[in-house]
Amino acid sequence: MIAIVDYGMGNLGSIQNMLKKIGAKVIITHxxxxxxxxxxxxxxxxGAFDAAMENLNKLGLTPLxxxxxxxxxxxxxxxxxxxxxxxxxxxxxxxxGLGWLDxxxxxxxxxxxxxxxxxxxxxxxxxxxPLFKDMYEERRFYFVHSYYVKCADNSDILTSTKYGIDFCSxxxxxxxxxxxYHPEKSHKFGMLLLKNFAELV
Amino acid sequence: xxxxxxMPCLLLRNSKLVKTVKFKNPRYVGDPVNAVKIYNDKExxxxxxxxxxxxxxxxAPPFKTISEIATECFMPYxxxxxxxxxxxxxxxxxxxxEKIAINSKAVERPALVKEAATEFGNQSVVVSIDAxxxxxxxxxxxxxxxxxxxxxxxxxxxRKMEEMGAGEILLTSIDRDGTWExxxxxxxxxxxxxxxxxxxxxxxxGSVQDFRKAVDAGASACAAGSMVVYQAKDRGVxxxxxxxxxxxxxxx
Lengths: 201, 252
Description:
- The complex is a heterodimer of chains A (about 200) and B (about 250).
- With about 200 residues, chain A is an alpha/beta fold.
- Chain A has helices spanning about 10-20, 30-35, 50-60, 60-70, 80-85, 185-200; strands at about 1-5, 25-30, 40-45, 75-80, 105, 115-120, 125, 140-145, 145-150, 155-165, 165-175, 175-180.
- Chain B has a single domain (about 5-250), classed as Aldolase class I (TIM Barrel), CATH 3.20.20.70.
- Chain B has helices at about 30-40, 65-70, 85-95, 105-110, 110-120, 155-165, 185-195, 210-215, 225-230, 245-250; strands at about 5-15, 15-20, 25-30, 45-50, 75-80, 100, 125-135, 140-145, 150, 170-175, 200, 220-225.
- Chain B has an 8-stranded parallel β-barrel with strand order 1-4-5-6-7-10-11-12, surrounded by 5 helices.
């Protein structure tokens, strides 16, 4: 069973729809017992950083997720803001992040490029990971974000994407993975990525 | 490289897919969920669904249809039509929609855009602006599916909507809707220069070359209606989308 953490932010329906399509067992929940018993966890998120952290804290889920991610090494995937929440802090807010990786979330500089970075972009693999198993052709995903993750340790970076700069579009540290794009909205590319996540052992 | 987004802009009326010409004469073109399945196969970048009678008939958004579409829509999905409150938005997002589009209500109560952006983030809020040239040649914003002149200038309105927190502007030329004559490039240029958020051009697309022209005029993305539901101008219904390779050739 894959638990999608429902802390009141983000488009959980889409993630559930795609996981169901690939035949995975999935539940949207904020019940700690259900999350604790799940084989895998997805931390979604759309919206503002502080509001997300505050909701997670209010629901009392932060200590549970810390334990599952860091002590029990449960496979956990952060999507978009969910990925950013796994970092130590974000320029978007004042509350501390989960801090599972030595990384922080920063804003795209206002330059010639429009922010948010919105649309389909490709990802370049920096390090092999089961998430990208069987993805041989161009890997194309849908992005929408104004902030991005900066890893202190380059070896945590799984993929990079070009938008003015090269930024980290996926990271992994052991059982903890994050993707800045929305696999649930990225056709066959996202479907394969979520399938790979569902099949992680 | 970020690609230029090209998206079908599909119209709903009583949960059926219709297509209009200059916002009039809605013609039945099929079942929305069936269309979505075809667009999935075509690897369409995004989809926009607008219920063109919800606001006019003072109806709530058609939640059941929105949900049926979401279940099959594995690409970003924007829904607009009849959204009047944060509660409506919560419901719509909960069904699996990425972005909501606000049109009439954004004119009637601009603070709603701000509330939406604060609650859900700018990237989830599209302000849809329908504009028409009035008899003295000036552009004017119309609401309520093009029936209600507002006296507003699209440039001023778009700028204000960006200030309020709109993450994108969907700009539709009422005069070009369903005509296959190409986008209103002058209108696109005016509004694109006035805002920094992405502008989606809509109304008039007849060929992939029109997408190129809209992008050159300042659009970040292109929406198409007739082109993706008809075989050709004045021909039968056919749910279709240009080949990825063709789009890439013209747009990169």
